[in-house]
Amino acid sequence: MRGFRTWAFLVGSAALVGLAPAVATASHVMSYAEFQRLPQPAAPRLIAYGPDGLQQVELWKPPGQRLFPVVILIHGGCWQTNIAKADVMHRLAEALVDRGVAVWNVEYRGVDVPGGGYPGTFGDIAAAADLLGERGKALGLDTRRVIAMGHSAGGQLALWLAGRHNIARGSRLWSAHPLPVQGVVSLGGLPDLRAARSEAADACGVDTVDRLIGAPTPTHSHPFADTSPVSLLPLGVSQILISGEADVIAPPHFAESYAGKVRRKGDAIVVVTLANQGHFELITPGTPAGNAAIDAALRLLEARKR
Predict the structure, then answer these.
(1) What domains does the chain contain, in order, with CATH numbers?
(2) Model confidence, pTM
(3) Can you give the chain as a three-state secondary structure string?
(4) What is the pLDDT of residues 228-287, one digit of tens each?
(5) Are 289 and 274 in contact (CB under 8 A)?
(6) Helices then strands (H, E): number in the chain?
């Protein structure tokens, strides 16, 4: 934790090495169309965690025989498969591998495909993580050093993954032995589903969150209770939330509002807002936001090593 706190101080002081000059000179904000034109490397290996074609993870791993720390990577796209899939994270995955980290890049069923929504979308994320716990060592992965990183809607899912141990036993999402993660990096995330229901309606659709959490039923009377990270606080792990000041999809106040609730519950959290950065720079290595995302992941993994 000491390494995490030191990094937090440096970020808060705008002293992160190499970051301040890039922020000062950057002015153009990347559009989604521009992001889509960027070449994405091919995934090296696919591993199924379920029978559906979307129930698979991509394993990205550095060369070598030792056990590698792992980033569970979760893409966004407003929880909708037809908006984005795991390939939008390929450049980020490759950059993490170049820094000596393995990546478990998760594909999952969104609310717009059969099996998605509640409980399917959450069940997919859980099953993908638990498969890492079951097979990780045999695949050359250090399952004692695992963090979750998610972008946009994937930021919410990454935080939810870290809070699974707090889900009530009666929930359909309860698991006896969820894979522990040591920290979370949320990139332009939508961490509070109750707030996102209205605040992200323009970007994601007015009924998207309702489709994600499911309608209230006699056995699931409070749909946010086992789906929203806010309801699962304290998560018990360090959290880093990175936002672009120019992000119109997930503005920085989403992270700030969530962080206030986190601090009141006693969790360690750092909120970073980068000037002249938008939503898609966050998953584009070489931009100030993309570089900060990689650095945050490495810092959390290094803090666990200590």
Answers:
(1) 2-305 (3.40.50.1820)
(2) 0.92
(3) CHHHHHHHHHHHCCCCCCCHHHHHHCCCCCCHHHHHCCCCCCCCCEEECCCCCCCEEEEECCCCCCCEEEEEEECCCCCCCCCCCHHHHHHHHHHHHHCCCEEEEECCCCCCCCCCCCCHHHHHHHHHHHHHHHHCHHHCEEEEEEEEEEECHHHHHHHHHHCHHHCCCCCCCCCCCCCCCCEEEEECCCCCHHHHHHHCHHHHCCCHHHHHHCCCECCECCCCCCCCHHHHCCCCCEEEEEEECCCCCCCHHHHHHHHHHHHHHCCCEEEEEECCCCCCHHHCECEHHHHHHHHHHHHHHHHHHC
(4) 999 999 999 999 999 999 999 999 999 999 999 999 999 999 999 999 999 999 999 999
(5) yes
(6) 11, 8
Task: Enter the tokens of residue 197.
Answer: 């229901």
